[in-house]
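The protein record reproduced below.
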Amino acid sequence: MKTYLFVMRRLPHLTSHVQETLDQMLTTAAFDQSVSVLFVDDGVFQLKQGQKPAQMVLRNTAAMFTALEMYDITRIYAEAESLSARGLDADDLILPVKIVSRAEVNDLLKQHQVLIPD
């Protein structure tokens, strides 16, 4: 089994790219691969509570992130500096995440065999 780390950097609801990456993540997990997710930069907004994608005629990817646990995707990380720079903290998010510092991100990347940036 390989270990995959999906790195989510983009704002939600601007394009279908986040949905496509999420589909790829769920498919990878469905084939019994080890999947982790790291939210950095504007990607932390993907987990923000209170999103209203219906107003933008896009799929609610935030709701789909809540299904990650059903696919055994439980290693979910958010970079502390990205959250702080955007005025967010763990209480603002729809999922429990492990908050890692920018210095810890490099170690996290090294722990995975396959990196998939969005």
Observations:
- The longest strand covers residues 3-8.
- Strands lie at 3-8, 34-39, 75-79, 98-100, 114-117.
- Residues 17-30 form the longest helix (14 residues).
- The chain has one domain: 3-117.
